[in-house]
Amino acid sequence: MYQPPHFREDDLGTQHALIRAYPLGMLITSGNSGLLANPVPFHLDGEASDKGVLRLHLARANSQWKDIRDGATVLAVFQGADSYVTPSWYQTKQETGKVVPTWNYAIVQARGPARIVEEADWLLAQIEAITSQHENSRPMPWSVNDAPDDFISAQLKGIVGVEIQISEIEGKWKVSQNRPVGDREGVASGLDNMPGQDQMAELVRRYGASRLT
Fold first, then answer.
1. Rounded CA gap, 97 and 145, in Å?
2. How far apart are CA 57 and CA 116, in angstroms?
3. Of 53, 148, 160, 175, which has fewest CB within 10 angstroms of its CB?
4. Cβ contacts of residue 41 below 8 Å, gap of 6+?
5. How far apart are CA 193 and CA 199, in angstroms?
């Protein structure tokens, strides 16, 4: 993706943290069926290789897995916090008026060789891992074991596993680092007053501060 140097985020731990916080990624392939994109919940195993391994499953009726089996190029995209940024928040607007709107966001893209997995044990382990990731913090977490074994076995027959060995991973945190201090402060203050934008306001402050060091 287009990567101005001041927006690059190369820290692997930060990239992995975004994937875990926003696991519903976009699985994109270019293969025999052309360009395909499907939203899929991913599970990241950060210890399985130098850059990590992504595991997911697709409905057997979804032909995308066949393209992957046949060697399609695979890209996974994870969208983090984002926000429209109005020029009205910029100090520069008051000084010169030479400002335009933009959009702030944090995003990770991962590429790598992918393989199809159809073994029931692997599929069950993948389902258990992603379920535990999202259920364990709940007061009464649901477990795969809560469902009857024959029901789960039938469900597993309807899915196909995919494992992506991450060979390339890029992070882009476009959070006003390219703006003067007064503009960044104005953006953060403006976001403070927007419902659900606490995380982006914090990113603008944190990355702006790191730019000054």
1. 61
2. 9
3. 148
4. 23, 24, 25, 56, 130
5. 12
